[in-house]
């Protein structure tokens, strides 16, 4: 029994290694061949240079950034509601009014105010178009200089945010209902899926870091854990309800990190502040220690913010880049390789989705634990 | 890098959504769920403790029972022993009393026999003397004629008499 299990595991590992190796081989061969053809093409056909070169970076960045419309497939987009607060007035319209223009060429006029969209950002339109037909003024880096209204639109990320809130509420209210229904009995259904994870957060994240005060912080830790985890998973779904890069958005991770920061600061006891302002070192060391400790208060949440953002964004870019190999090499034969890689990275991303949620939560618990720790 | 600049609108939305989510989940999910889990853990612990106590109680009762059985057995043996002793003593007593009674009866019988014998002897003696006198009278009557014969007769009679 045991032996067969081990064998199976080794066998699977072998398959993975072999697949990776063959994939690598294929990619390097394909790349070489492609370089040759590209070289060949350059020499013979001058018109290929005129073809729009596929920019993988631009493509990936476009996909991981927020958007005012939701790309379904091909040229199909779902228009999302735009809500702007400009010059003391709330303006709402459908993002489809921009006709999927993203270069500030289409002006939407509403409530006597004119808006254009450029690189998924909405600006107050200039009175007249520039030489490229854009209703914005550009600086030397081709960035718009126009003023921006306060944009509270339900963008792709905002919609995903709402969706994830609804999903989380649905799941955990159902779980709570299970606890009411099977009071004192063994968990059933969804409840038994979630209970081990709730217990994991309680016993392996909260209790070791927070000690006996863990109960106060459980709601925050559980919410933040499941919010990050569900959204990480939702981000991995490539089609409609998923696909948004919510937890890889710096605004979202910033809010989460700020929550940890405020909880840490407001719950910090006298020992915590004494450790920062009057550490147990000779007084002349204070010149160095106090600024370092003060700096540390801010670097911890900033690290949380960057870590989650970077990990999730990197995962999305990786998957997108692997899929884009087909377009980079302009060959269908590369598809099996890129799909094999994408599946592999996707599997890793599933793990990362959980691990990042875990890391964010355990570090939050650690920072809060450091702030509320009693010294004897 | 545009990616690194947080969009202010999304910050506001995220703050509202996250706080709302946390509030709702804390009130309607985490609180009851954690309480239920804790309660269940407590009840499981309690049940296990109770089972342990019941086991100990059971063991105690079993040993007590054994003790009682042992005691009962000992008591029974004691009672049996006592009964046996009693029985033996009763039997012995009966035996001795029967023996003494028998001996008494025998003694009585012997005395009676002796008395009877004595009485009989006395009567016999009386009769013998009467008879002897009769005989003597008759002999004397018949024998007085012949002196020798008289002598023989007396001698023979006396011999007979002495046999008694």
TrEMBL record, chain A:
InterPro entries found in the cross-reference section: ATP_synth_F0_asu, ATP_synth_F0_asu_bact/mt, F0_ATP_A_sf
UniProt topology in membrane: Multi-pass membrane protein
Primary residence: membrane
Gene Ontology terms for molecular function: proton-transporting ATP synthase activity, rotational mechanism
GO cellular component, one term: plasma membrane
Alphabetized SUPFAM superfamilies for the sequence: F1F0 ATP synthase subunit A
Signal peptide: 1-33
Entry superkingdom: Bacteria
TM helices/strands, residue ranges: 161-179, 217-240, 246-269, 281-298, 304-329, 341-372
The UniProt record lists the keyword Protein biosynthesis: no
Keywords: ATP synthesis, Cell membrane, CF(0), Hydrogen ion transport, Ion transport, Membrane, Signal, Transmembrane, Transmembrane helix, Transport
Pfam families: ATP-synt_A
Compartments where found: Cell membrane; Membrane
Family: Belongs to the ATPase A chain family.
HAMAP family per record: ATP_synth_a_bact (MF_01393)
General function of this protein: Key component of the proton channel; it plays a direct role in the translocation of protons across the membrane.
Name the record gives this protein: ATP synthase subunit a
Organism listed in the record: Pedobacter polaris
From TrEMBL, chain B:
HAMAP family registered for this protein in UniProt: ATP_synth_b_bprime (MF_01398)
Name recorded for this polypeptide: ATP synthase subunit b
Compartments in which it is found: Cell membrane; Endomembrane system
Coiled-coil residues: 37-89
Subunit structure: F-type ATPases have 2 components, F(1) - the catalytic core - and F(0) - the membrane proton channel. F(1) has five subunits: alpha(3), beta(3), gamma(1), delta(1), epsilon(1). F(0) has three main subunits: a(1), b(2) and c(10-14). The alpha and beta chains form an alternating ring which encloses part of the gamma chain. F(1) is attached to F(0) by a central stalk formed by the gamma and epsilon chains, while a peripheral stalk is formed by the delta and b chains. F-type ATPases have 2 components, F(1) - the catalytic core - and F(0) - the membrane proton channel. F(1) has five subunits: alpha(3), beta(3), gamma(1), delta(1), epsilon(1). F(0) has four main subunits: a(1), b(2) and c(10-14). The alpha and beta chains form an alternating ring which encloses part of the gamma chain. F(1) is attached to F(0) by a central stalk formed by the gamma and epsilon chains, while a peripheral stalk is formed by the delta and b chains.
Domain of life: Bacteria
InterPro entries, A to Z: ATP_synth_B-like_membr_sf, ATP_synth_b/b'su_bac/chlpt, ATP_synth_F0_bsu_bac, ATP_synthase_B_chain
Function according to Swiss-Prot or TrEMBL: Component of the F(0) channel, it forms part of the peripheral stalk, linking F(1) to F(0). The b'-subunit is a diverged and duplicated form of b found in plants and photosynthetic bacteria.
Family statement drawn from the similarity comment of this UniProt entry: Belongs to the ATPase B chain family.
GO molecular function: proton-transporting ATP synthase activity, rotational mechanism; proton-transporting ATPase activity, rotational mechanism
Transmembrane regions listed in the UniProt entry: 12-30
Keywords per UniProt: ATP synthesis, Cell membrane, CF(0), Coiled coil, Hydrogen ion transport, Ion transport, Membrane, Transmembrane, Transmembrane helix, Transport
